[in-house]
Each structure stands twice: as structure tokens, then as C-alpha cells.
Amino acid sequence: MVEDSPAMIPLCVPEIRGNEWQYVKDCLDTNWVSSVGGYVDRFEEMVAAYTGREHAIATVNGTAALHVALLVAGIEPDDEVLVPSLTFIAPANAVRYMGAWPVFIDADPEFGLMDCARIKDFIAEECSRESGSLYNKSTGRRVKGLLPVHILGHPVDMDPLVDLARGYDLTVVCDATECLGAKYKGDSSSHLGDIACFSFNGNKVITTGGGGMVVTDNEAWADRVRYLTTQAKDDPVEYIHGEVGYNYRLTNVQAAMGVAQMEVLDDYVVAKRRTHRRYLDGFAGLSGIELLGSPKWAESIYWLSTIRVNDSVSGVGSRDLMRVLKEEQIDSRPLWHPLHGLKPFVDCARYGGDVAEDLYSRCLSLPSSVGLSEDDQNRVIRCICQMVRP
Ligand SMILES: *Cc1c(COP(=O)(O)O)cnc(C)c1O
After folding, report:
1. Nearest C-alpha neighbor of 87 from the set 175, 12, 159, 171
2. In angstroms, what is the span from residue 74 Cα to ligand 1's centroid?
3. Cα dihedral: 19, 23, 26, 28 (round 10)
């Protein structure tokens, strides 16, 4: 007799339970299926209102949002932009699309976020100021941007970073992709810098299948984002284009999904936080397994609940744990390989990196879908508890 194996518990999958069907059907029924339509406008208005920004412009995905944000924010070819070592690759790729260069900044050991103290040291030790601009002494390039990434749902400590940026005329472009719904010092917009980007890829807190958004208070930048994402059209009838633009717009069908998802975002954030709390309780008595917490300045959304494994205490390493979880039909995943060690970036400058490497080797993200049931979560907790030395 073959035993029924339990269903796979995925890492993080979409949750579709609201008005998605109705709104998408509305697009199909009315033939408004392409890159203009009422849902695009509504989705943009909802995200602008939610993030407390004057302008929101939908894009085809989060990577495109980052690219166009850098384009309008005054980053130029050969400029340097400070990017965290420990993040998904998209922000560093976007910097390279510009012909600009990432400088990788190490993570802080507690939360894994871009370490503001390191940025300060980098500027003090590696840079000089000439006629108002900051230059990297060893590369001779202008340092023009800061690109903090609010990983795992926690906002970076923005106040000191913005102070630095103001002092050295740096633009702050935020990758807020993983933290829609989070707050910084009680406020839902103060961690979004001069311009911020979101992604609505399938694994994010809300999804449009694929999609992104740029938010800013700067009207000129917002206008330029709209212009550049629609092929830089000067005259839509006569096919007059003012410069090399991009086709980066989101479709009405995807935006329809986005509107429905925005309607339930607050519930999803509650679910993410509940999941994190249950893992905390579940691992409370376990030595060598620690959940990455949220900094005191942040109200994290805990996009992915992530443990840090101290294998000399737990008796099992993160990758062994991952393998056994897989055998038990439970999906888990390491954090991102530090970008400074990846082939496209090995020649880029970096400042530190040991902390990112340590977190990469020791951390594991656990199932964190909005729809994760308590039973399934208990299965994950039980499996980990069984493997760890008491
Ligand atoms: C998902 C993600 C992106 C990329 O978004 P896409 O919509 O997949 O292009 C960018 N940055 C971070 C930090 C992400 O997690």
C-alpha cells in the first residue's frame, strides 16, 4: 500500500480570495485589456494613497520600476550607487542598466539590512568631496545614489541615511518591494526616500502576476516616469518620440488584479505578522535557531519569516535543514547569495561583505504564504524541532 504523502507546503504563493475574478472579468467584458484603462488609474491611486505619496506610476515589473526610477533620479552613466550586498539581484542589475556601478555595502548583523554605519565609514574613508559632489577616491567615479532595500519586510533605518544623502547631494532610491504595508517610526511613507519602487511579482505580499510601481512626491520625476515608460511619446497620433523610451507599462488586466489585492492588503499584513509570531512561539525553547527580528524603528510586515541557524548549537546546518524539510514536502530557501560574489559584479567595489556572507550561509526562509494554515505551519515547526538538538 502506498501511503499518501502530505501536500507540499510552498515557500510563498499568491493568495487570491477577493474581487480579482470580478475585476479581471470586467476588463475582458469591456475589452479594456491593454496598457490603458480604469484599473490602471485606480491601482495607481490606491498605492499612492496607501504609501502617502503624491504620485504612483504602474510598471510592468519591479525591476523596470527600479530602472526608470534611477533614470529620472539623475543617476548618470559611470556614477556609483550604494547597494546592499545582501538583496535580490534586481536593484544591482538596474544600476548596471544605467551604465552606472553598484558599490556593495555590507549588511548589519542583526537584521541583515544595509548597514548605515558602513555607509558612513565608506564615505569618510573612501570618498572625497569636490565642487559639491562626492567621489570615490579609488575609482575616481562620482557617487550619486543610495539604493537601500527594505529586505524581508523590514524598513532600513532611513533617518541617518537621508541625513547623509542630504549632506552629500545623493539621491535616495528605495527598493521597497518587500515591505509594502510596513511602517518606519510609525509612519508609512518616511522610509520611501526621494523615490521608491515596488514589485507585484507572485511571491510578494500582494501580486498582479507580474507588475511594479514607482512612487514619489516629485511631480517632474513622476511625469518623466510616465513619459519614459510609454516610449517617450511627444505626439501619440503622429508617432513623434522625444528620446529613447521604454515599454514598461502595466496592463489593465494586471492592474485589475492589483486593485483587488490592494483592497485586502491590510489583512495580508496581519496574516504575515501572525505567521511570524507563531514561528517565534514555536521555536521559543530551541537553541541555535533564531528568527530574524524586526528593528525597533520598524513595523515589519515579515514578508518572509527567516531563521538564522547556529549549527554549533543546533547540531544541524541551514542547508541540511533545507534538505530534510524538502524530504518532508516543505519548501524553504536560503537568503540571496551576496551580490559582491556573483559573476556580473565581481569587479565592482564593495565595502565589507563578511556579514552578508555569514547570513547567506546560516539563514533559511520558511513557508510564509498569506494563506499558510495553522496546521501546515505546525508541521513546519514540528519538523524543525525534531531536527534540532534539544
Ligand atoms: C522581487 C524583487 C524585485 C524584483 O521585482 P520583479 O517584479 O520580479 O522585477 C526587486 N527587488 C527586490 C528586493 C525584490 O524582492
Report:
1. 175
2. 22
3. -120
Q: What are phi and psi of 205, to 5 degrees?
A: -60, -40
Helix/strand/coil for 104? strand
Residue 236: phi and psi, rounded to 5, are -70, -20
Distance 84 CA to ligand 1 centre (A): 14
Distance 383 CA to ligand 1 centre (A): 30
Closest CA to 246 of 12, 29, 66, 49: 66
Asked whether residue 4 carries a pLDDT value surpassing 70, the answer given is: no
Nearest 5°: phi and psi at 184?
Answer: -115, 120
Where would I find the beta strands (DSSP E) of 166-256?
Answer: 171-175, 183-184, 195-199, 212-216, 233-235, 240-241
Q: How far apart are the first and last CA of the chain?
A: 35
CA of 88 to the centre of ligand 1 (A): 7
Name the DSSP letter for residue 230.
B
Question: In this predicted structure, what is the pLDDT of residue 285?
Answer: 87
H-state helical runs in the chain:
20-30, 38-51, 62-72, 90-97, 116-126, 158-168, 219-229, 252-263, 265-282, 311-314, 318-327, 354-362, 374-387
Pocket test residue of 60, 70, 179, 201 for ligand 1, highest count of atoms within 8 A of CB: 201
The residues lining ligand 1, judged by C-beta closer than 6 Å to any ligand atom, are 61-63, 87-88, 90-91, 149, 175, 177-178, 199, 201, 210, 212
Question: Which string of DSSP letters, residue by residue, matches 256-298?
Answer: HHHHHHHHTHHHHHHHHHHHHHHHHHHTTT-TTEEE----TTE
Separation CA 106–CA 4 (nearest Å): 45
Among 178, 197, 257, 336, name the best residue to mutate to test ligand 1's pocket (greatest count of ligand atoms within 8 A of Cβ). Answer: 178
Task: Please name which of 248, 255, 245 lies closest in space to residue 37, comparing C-alpha atoms.
Answer: 255
Say if residue 125's pLDDT is above 70: yes
182/173 Cα distance (integer angstroms) = 17
Q: List, for residues 252-279, the tens digit of each pLDDT value.
A: 999 999 999 999 999 999 999 999 999 9
pLDDT, residue 3, reads: 59
- Residue 240 DSSP SS3: strand
